[in-house]
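We were asked to recover a plausible sequence for a given structure. The inputs and outputs are reproduced exactly as logged, with field labels preserved.

PROBLEM: sequence recovery
POSITIONS: 170
GIVEN STRUCTURE:
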């Protein structure tokens, strides 16, 4: 049980960092180059930038490097690459869906903001999780991951809001 919890932290840390770092290092050219979709609204919006995307993946993988060195398990590094990329893709997918639903940039959506990034991280890292994080692939562990992720995301965004990094606390 306790081992499972350590496994959970090792798995979650890279995508969490990938998802959080863009708030600090993001900005600049938006991924959608300010283009609009068929519905006349922005494809993704100004909240998704290349700098944020790259910073997220770099820092997420950096955590994976630390885990690799600490546990001398190269698969931890490989998993962090997939989970960090997955987290950023999930975040982008969330903004895409929010724009199609006519949510303005920054408007909160529980599923899109707090849950989708980790769902994508798990789906994309799944083949490696079968090797490295098998214990996390039960319904119980996956449900716990969603609950922890929701709570962590709320806490981190409230902190980011207090620090003045984000205009809104979500
Ligand atoms: N950010 C970024 N690039 C990314 C993701 C995030 O630059 N790929 C930065 C943006 O400055 C963004 C902030 O991190 O405003 C917070 O990210 P997020 O909450 O995901 O974006 P929102 O601005 O809330 O926009 P959306 O409504 O699309 O979620
Ligand atoms: Mg947001």
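RECOVERED SEQUENCE:
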């Amino acid at each position: 049980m306790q081992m499972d919890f350590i496994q959970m932290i090792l798995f979650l840390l890279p995508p969490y960092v990938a998802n959080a770092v863009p708030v600090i290092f993001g900005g600049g050219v938006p991924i959608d180059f300010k283009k609009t979709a068929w519905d006349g609204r922005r494809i993704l919006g100004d909240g998704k930038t290349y700098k944020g995307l790259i910073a997220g993946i770099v820092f997420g993988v950096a955590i994976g490097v630390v885990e690799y060195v600490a546990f001398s398990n190269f698969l931890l590094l490989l998993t962090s690459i997939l989970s960090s990329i997955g987290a950023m893709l999930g975040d982008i997918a969330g903004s895409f869906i929010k724009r199609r639903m006519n949510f303005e940039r920054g408007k909160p959506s529980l599923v899109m903001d707090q849950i989708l990034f980790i769902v994508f991280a798990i789906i994309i890292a799944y083949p490696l999780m079968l090797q490295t994080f098998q214990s996390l692939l039960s319904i119980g562990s996956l449900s716990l991951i969603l609950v922890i992720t929701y709570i962590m995301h709320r806490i981190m965004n409230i902190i980011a809001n207090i620090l003045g990094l984000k205009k809104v606390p979500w």
